[in-house]
Amino acid sequence: MTTLADPVPGGRPGDVERAAALAGELSGRGVHGVVLAYVDTAGVTRVKTVPTARLTAAAAWGVGMSPVFDTFLANDSIVSTDVLGSPDGDLRLYPDLDQLVVLAGQPGWAWAPVDRITQEGAPHPGCGRTVLRRIVREAADHHGLTFRAGIEVEWSVSQGPSGGNFVPATTGPAYSATRQVELSDYTADLLAAFAAQGVEVEQLHPEYAAGQFEVSVGALDPVAAADRSVLVRQTVRAVAARHHLAVSFAPAVFAQGVGNGGHIHLSAWRDGVNLHSGGAGRYGMTKEAESFTAGVLAHLPALTAVTAPSPASYLRLRPSQWAGVFTAWGRETREAAVRVITGMSGVRDQAANLEVKPVDLAANPYLALACLIAVGLDGVTSSAALPEEITGDPARFGAEDAAARGVRRLPTSLDEAVEKFREDATLRDALGPVLADAVIAVRLGESAAVHGLDDERVAAAYRWTY
Length: 466
Ligand code: GLU
Ligand code: MG
Known about the structure:
- There is one protein chain.
- It is built from 15 helices and 16 strands.
- By secondary structure, it is α+β, with helices and mostly antiparallel strands.
- It has two domains: 109 residues, Glutamine synthetase, N-terminal domain (Ubiquitin-like (UB roll), Roll); 326 residues, 2-Layer Sandwich (Creatine Kinase, Chain A, domain 2).
- The relative contact order is 0.14.
- The site of glutamic acid has 11 residues, from loops.
- Glutamic acid binds next to loops.
């Protein structure tokens, strides 16, 4: 379980001694530096690095970085809110030592996610990881609930170098043995790197789109799951570079066709019991799990501003591409935004969960999980009723049929998603005013940045960003 305590000046209890011991051990293993990573509001992972010998100082006093990155756009231009976006001020990045790993794909480097606090020692309201820790803490304190989460990672592999034209590194069909053989060395090295880093891989497979692959990892507590999503991408990219390959995690590598998703799996637990299994509701869900699912569905259009935050996200969010663009749920239904997974008979008490599909890897995983948990809890608090399930592709429903079933199309543009987000007090409260305003400002900035571009140019603008 990730520590839910905020960092404090001087370091979290025990961290300084631990960092000193770790620094010695890392140096002994040939590690020269530690990458300190967080994800900004736009979904870009920003980093600082310190030499290994500075890890102890970082654990005690943090590492400086401007708060201006909270209103950076993906193209590195800057927007502002009432509070954020000015050149003033500084924040301290505190590594979470529990999550520090030696990077197998980048010899000489270790990696750790960070929380950000002010120089006065207060949590930074723009820090997504801090917000997620707060939401997880509140869920435990007020509802007695804990969560397990996993984020799938899809990516498209091109012949290198990164930043050039996308030339698929495979030619074989989707899910095919041909593709597996074509990138045999790369994917074997990838599995080795994950294993060396303690990343539990459930499966890795060639996906649908050109050059596309996917990895699924084991479920963890929500903060660790978000950290892992960042680490997985760092690893996928680093190992690819060693094979002279380039990878794109963009929601849409091209304007047409299947995109890269970042589906989130989530389950709620009480006293060690999975609420999505063994209950009296549908497919073994407890009433609470049904209400949690109903809460997710009710808020999904607004949530899209967080889970699909890029103009390119809306090139991916199209019907009949398994991206889940309708507010509907179904058991193992891959066109519903929420896929209810019961798991195999025999392991359901462990395996049952929800898969939320309209999420991509432009999303800040901390914010996405924080918001998902918040809206699910809103459903639990109001004992929200779960609508009827759907089967098949909701795209085939006529308007009347869809309305009768409560099936809504998710926003088709970032601007539309922002309007829904603005109206959603649950989401804004979950993020807090500073971050909620940053989300709105950054999304509107992204939208303005691509104004007038055709779809192919929008895809190109974000192809190598995330
Ligand atoms: N690539 C699809 C997406 O954009 C997902 C395919 C799958 O279900 O694995 O979300
Ligand atoms: Mg997939």
